[in-house]
Specification:
The chain is built from 29 helices and ten strands. By secondary structure, the protein is an alpha/beta fold. It is elongated. It starts with a helix and ends with a helix.
């Protein structure tokens, strides 16, 4: 195993947390001073904030002018609503697409400015449509371009400004988004009520404003991934390594960007869903979305029925409430940043407190006996819920690797808008039909309470997940340095791997390595976790912590199919063949990674049939009708066809006669002799140790022994656990002859 990275992790842990913005200090400098010190200035924040403002124009204009659009184009209210749903669906789908677009090449500034111009043009074109199809196309295009807001804006801000200022920066961005909710209805009211424009004129004017505003963002640039946090952490690792090496250059080591091991969009999504804090914040977003997304629609009916407010009065009410929200965000951001700097868990607990407070104030909204008390309670509710957003995104994005933050931000938007919004329409619609508008407002309290509990739960995991991220970065940086210095890295290295089946944890901080061309035995009791570890290596099981590296590259969350293409093959225990397919067809399936190279597949099949003559005699026979030994031969032929660098074999000898086992072992030796490293999982110590020089022994999900096979023979305490004392004594007596 590689010991240097683990030693380095502990040495730079404190520096790593400081690099991630957790300095343990209160906020002392103003945001202006902090932004000036970052050399980025105000421009990126102002440009992205302006894009956030104009992003609201199309939606608010469409919702407000929906009846006019319906009458002019001769389409039903249902059609108008359906087009709006398609617009929101396009936003959801496009957000992940935008994340995938920028995950390898840092071009988020270009994507942000380009998509801003695109939705600005769509806003303008809305005023020129003449049919329902044109309207639907323009609205879907608007939603598709707006998806970048969820995926790109906040991660770009995190990489632009110092980590210690991220709460205030995200709060300032949230103020811009809130400002959009003030300006949008006000602008619609101005253009229709004062200038007396029709709905087409409103969209044209707003579109021109959007186009002019989006031009301001054309100078946005992408500073790269992680320069403000993980980049500083890598600098700390290099400085520490230079100090321990007694001087020398601390120049950055180039990071490999091998497409073969770079995660794809859905692999990144899988990886994110394993992080406890990420899972919980996504659940928080969904619960908040239940109340936030449809709340204003139902609250309008409440204002009309309970307080008798007309359209103009309701519009004025909704325009003034965000002013209070923006002020609260500005005032509270400094305190939130102090909490994050001292302890990210405190920031998450503050978020939970704000959500709980919003639930209480909603009850006060419904119960208020006079209008001003109701308005104050609703403004307080809106301010507290808006304050949750910076805390939620800061906590979630801080525990995620920078290249994955666009995906994490997109997922938060998906869960907030799509998952929570759709569920909210169902919940509030049901409450409204039974209890009226007041009942629908009160119903929002319940998802808020759930969100508060989930946010409180996320506070318990955020520090651990932050440390896990630091560990991953430190390990990757030091391994890269070792590789640059010419140090031979293991072919396979599993470090501190932990795995669970649901709530049942099976592996506990397992360390395991295989050198190039080596054969290693993995022994242990039933249920020790041997087969599970092979699943983690092969990619059919993803660990919730730890890492799996292949030739130095991190493949922990790489799909199983891609691992096969890298050279990792597995012969699973038990049913390792397709029973209804013929022997030859099974072999052709094994060779799928050769693609259209039929000659390579045919050569592999001929090698397999030559190595196992009995399979040649039964080449057209269904695999399910073969004997157990013959099925194992067929399964083992996978290695002859794929020619992997690493072959994992699970329970090769299970239920087979000694003669058959001997034949299989001969072939395993032959495969290993060609340079293929082999991991052999066995319960039979005599079978395993007759092949290998090095062995691991597992018990209850932990590695109890690793070392030379001959040394394992002296560990009666381990061998006795699988009732193999006799086999151990026999092997010990014969061991000198090996």
């Amino acid at each position: 195993m590689i010991e240097e990275p683990q030693a380095g992790i502990e040495a730079v842990r404190a520096a790593g947390r400081a690099a991630m913005g957790v300095t343990g200090q209160d906020v002392r400098e103003s945001l202006r001073s902090a932004l000036r010190a970052s050399h980025a200035g105000w421009y990126p924040l102002l440009a992205l904030g302006l894009l956030a403002i104009i992003d609201t124009f199309q939606l608010y204009a469409y919702v407000t002018l929906g009846p006019d659009i319906s009458a002019s184009l001769g389409i039903s209210k249902t059609a108008v609503t359906m087009i709006l749903v398609l617009d929101q669906l396009a936003i959801v789908l496009a957000s992940l697409a935008a994340a995938g677009l920028v995950q390898r090449v840092p071009r988020r500034g270009l994507v942000a400015s380009t998509t801003g111009m695109a939705w600005s043009l769509m806003t303008l074109l809305t005023g020129l449509v003449t049919s329902i199809w044109q309207l639907g196309l323009v609205m879907v295009a608007d939603g598709a371009s707006s998806g970048s807001v969820h995926a790109v804006h906040k991660p770009l801000l995190l990489d632009t400004y110092p980590a210690a200022t991220r709460v205030r920066v995200l709060s300032a961005y949230q103020v811009a988004a809130v400002t959009g909710t003030i300006l949008s209805p006000a602008l619609v009211a101005l253009l229709t009520g004062v200038v007396h424009l029709g709905w087409r004129g409103v969209f044209v004017v707003m579109g021109l404003i959007c186009v002019a505003s989006s031009l301001i963002a054309v100078r946005l640039r992408d500073p790269g991934f992680g320069g403000q946090d993980t980049g500083r952490l890598r600098d700390a690792v290099r400085a520490d390594a230079t100090r321990r090496d007694g001087g020398g250059s601390a120049a950055p080591v180039p990071q490999s960007g091998d497409p073969a091991t770079s995660l794809r969009v859905m692999e990144i999504v899988q990886r994110l869903m394993i992080i406890p804090t990420m899972r919980r914040t996504l659940a928080v977003a969904a619960a908040l979305g239940v109340g936030l997304v449809p709340l204003n629609s139902y609250f309008s009916f409440f204002l009309e029925q309970r307080w008798g407010l007309g359209p103009t009065q309701r519009a004025l009410f909704f325009a003034l409430v965000p002013v209070f929200t923006a002020i609260a965000l500005v005032v509270g951001s400094r305190h939130g940043e102090s909490l994050y700097r001292r302890d990210p868990a405190r920031l998450m607990r503050l978020g939970a407190l704000l959500i709980g407070g919003a639930a209480v104030s909603l009850i006060a909204v419904v119960a208020a006996p006079v209008f001003w008390m109701m308005a104050l309670a609703f403004a307080l509710t809106s301010a507290m819920l808006a304050g949750v957003v910076p805390a939620l995104y800061t906590g979630a994005l801080s525990v995620v690797a920078p290249r994955m933050r666009p995906h994490a931000s997109a997922l938060l938007g998906v869960f907030l808008v799509a998952v929570g919004g759709i569920l909210g329409l169902l919940v509030l619609g049901s409450a409204d039909s039974r209890y009226g508008p007041a009942g629908s407002v009160v119903a929002v309290c319940f998802p808020c309470i759930v969100a508060a509990l989930l946010m409180r739960s996320a506070a318990g995991s955020v520090n651990t997940d932050l440390d896990n991220l630091i560990d991953e970065i430190v390990e990757a940086e030091q391994l890269t340095r070792l590789d640059a210095r010419g140090v031979q890295l293991p072919l396979l290295s599993c470090r501190r791997v932990s795995f669970s089946y649901g709530a049942l944890q099976v592996l506990f901080d397992v360390d395991f390595s295989v050198e190039d061309g080596e054969m290693v035995a993995l022994l242990g009791t039933n249920g020790a976790g041997k087969s599970t570890l092979l699943r983690v290596i092969a990619g059919t099981g993803l660990p919730f912590s730890g890492s799996v590296r292949y030739r130095g590259a991190d493949i922990t969350y790489l799909d199983a199919e891609r691992r096969v293409r890298l050279g990792i093959a597995q012969v699973p225990g038990g049913r390792a063949v397709f029973g209804r397919m013929s022997v030859v067809d099974n072999m052709r399936v094994f060779g799928f990674t050769h693609g259209r190279d039929r000659r390579a597949v045919d050569r592999g099949i001929e090698r397999s049939l030559a190595a196992f003559p009995r399979l040649g005699e039964r080449r057209n026979q269904a695999a399910g009708t073969l004997s157990g030994g013959e099925q194992q031969m067929l399964a083992l032929s996978k290695a002859l066809i794929l020619e992997p660098r690493l072959l994992c074999i699970d329970e090769l000898s299970l239920g087979l006669a000694p003669k058959v086992v001997g034949e299989l072992l001969t072939m395993v030796r032959a495969i290993n002799a060609t340079g293929t490293a082999v991991v052999l999982v066995e319960q039979s110590v005599n079978v395993a140790l007759s092949l290998v020089e090095r062995a691991y022994f597992m018990e209850k999900g932990e590695v109890r022994f690793q070392g030379r096979a001959s040394e394992l023979l002296d560990r009666d305490d381990l061998l006795r656990s699988v009732f193999l004392e006799g086999a151990a004594r026999g092997l010990a007596g014969a061991g000198t002859g090996r």
